[in-house]
C-alpha cells in the first residue's frame, strides 16, 4: 500500500512550467547547481565519485543529467508525473539516466539496489518528514555512501514542518498548501547523527549578493 506523501503531487505539476506556447526547449546543463544562483558554491564534487546516484525530486532533471553526462548511472524519482514525463521527453537518449514516478519514501522502501550517493536539490528531502526519510535513505546507501541536500535557508525561528504556498498555483494556494521541513544546520546535523550518519557537515551558504536568500547545504555519510 503506497504511503500518503507529505505533499500532493498536483502541487508540483505546474512547477517550472516555462510559460509559453507549446513544449519548451530543454534547459542548458553545464554544471551541478546546489543553489538558485548559477555558478555559486560547490558543484558535483560534493558527491565524491559515485558510480550510482539517486536524485530525490529532480523535476526538470538538470542535476541528474549533468551526472549522467559524467558517466554516473542516475535514477531520478519524482512524485509529479507531469515533471517525470517532461524530464523523460527532454532527456530521452541520455545514457544511464532513468526518471521514475514515485514518492521518495515508497521508492526507497521498495527496492534493494544500493547507491553511492543520494541527493536532493531543493527537492523531496525538503518536503518529507526526515524521521521517515533518513532511515530509508540509510538502507539504500552503500557503506561510506553520501547523502547531500540543499534547500532555502531556514526562516529565523522556524523549526520542523512549515506550510508553503507556491506562487505558481494561481489561486489554488489554500487548497494545495504543502509542508516543508526547516531546521537550523545544527538541528539537521543532530537528526542525521541520530539516524546513524557520520561526518555530517551542515551550513548556510550566503547568497552572492546582499539581502538575497541563502542556501542550506548538508552532507553526511553512512559508515564505511
Ligand atoms: C522545488 S522542486 C525542485 C526540483 C529540482 N530538484 C530543482 O532543483 O529544480 C521539488 C521537487 O520535488 C518533488 N517532490 C516533492 N515531494 C516529493 C516526494 N515525496 N517524493 C518524490 N518527489 C517529491 C516535486 O514533485 C518537485 O518536482
Tell me, what's the shape?
globular
| Helix/strand order, N-terminal first | HEHEHEHEHEEEHEE
Share of β-strand residues? 25-35%
Described by strand count, sense and barrel closure, the largest sheet is: 7 strands, mixed
Distance between the termini: 33 Å
Mean pLDDT rating: 92
Q: Count the helices. How many? A: 6
Approximate helicity band: 10-25%
CATH superfamily: Vaccinia Virus protein VP39
Number of strands: 9
CATH class: Alpha Beta
Write the CATH architecture name: 3-Layer(aba) Sandwich
Low-confidence runs (pLDDT<50, min 5 residues)?
A: none
Domains (count): 1
The secondary-structure class comes to alpha/beta
Report on this structure.
The strands form two sheets. The protein has a seven-stranded mixed β-sheet. The chain has a two-stranded antiparallel ribbon with strand order 6-7. The chain has one domain (9-14, 32-157, 184-221): Rossmann fold (3-Layer(aba) Sandwich), CATH 3.40.50.150. It has helices spanning 9-13, 62-69, 81-90, 104-110, 130-140, 185-194; strands at residues 52-56, 73-78, 97-101, 115-121, 141-152, 160-164, 178-182, 198-205, 215-221. It has 224 residues and is α/β, with parallel strands linked by helices. The protein is globular and about 50 Å long. The chain contains six helices and nine strands. Helix 3 links the parallel strand 2 (73-78) and strand 3. 23% of the residues lie in helices and 27% in strands. The longest helix is centred in the middle third of the chain and has 11 residues, at 130-140. S-adenosylmethionine is lined by residues 5, 7, 12, 15, 56-60, 77-80, 83, 103-104, 121-124, 127-128.
Amino acid at each position: 500500500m503506497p504511503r500518503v506523501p507529505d505533499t500532493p503531487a498536483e502541487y508540483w505539476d505546474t512547477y517550472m512550467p516555462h510559460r509559453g506556447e507549446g513544449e519548451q526547449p530543454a534547459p542548458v546543463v553545464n554544471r551541478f547547481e546546489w543553489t538558485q544562483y548559477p555558478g555559486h558554491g560547490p558543484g558535483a564534487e560534493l558527491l565524491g565519485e559515485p558510480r550510482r546516484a539517486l536524485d530525490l525530486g529532480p523535476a526538470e532533471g538538470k542535476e541528474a543529467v549533468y551526472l549522467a553526462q559524467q558517466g554516473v548511472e542516475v535514477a531520478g524519482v519524482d512524485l509529479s508525473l507531469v515533471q517525470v514525463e517532461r524530464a523523460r521527453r527532454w532527456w530521452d537518449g541520455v545514457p544511464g539516466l532513468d526518471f521514475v514516478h514515485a514518492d521518495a519514501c515508497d521508492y526507497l522502501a521498495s527496492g534493494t539496489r544500493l547507491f553511492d550517493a543520494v541527493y536532493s536539490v531543493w527537492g523531496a528531502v525538503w518536503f518529507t518528514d526526515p524521521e521517515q526519510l533518513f532511515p530509508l535513505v540509510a538502507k539504500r546507501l552503500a557503506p561510506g555512501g553520501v547523502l547531500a541536500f540543499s534547500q532555502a535557508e531556514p526562516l529565523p525561528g522556524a523549526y520542523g514542518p512549515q506550510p508553503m504556498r507556491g506562487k505558481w498555483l494561481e489561486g489554488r494556494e489554500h487548497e494545495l498548501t504543502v509542508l516543508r521541513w526547516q531546521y537550523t544546520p545544527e538541528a539537521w546535523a543532530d537528526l542525521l547523527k541520530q539516524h546513524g550518519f557520520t561526518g555530517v557537515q551542515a551550513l548556510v551558504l550566503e547568497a552572492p549578493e546582499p539581502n538575497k536568500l541563502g542556501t542550506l547545504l548538508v552532507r553526511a555519510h553512512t559508515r564505511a
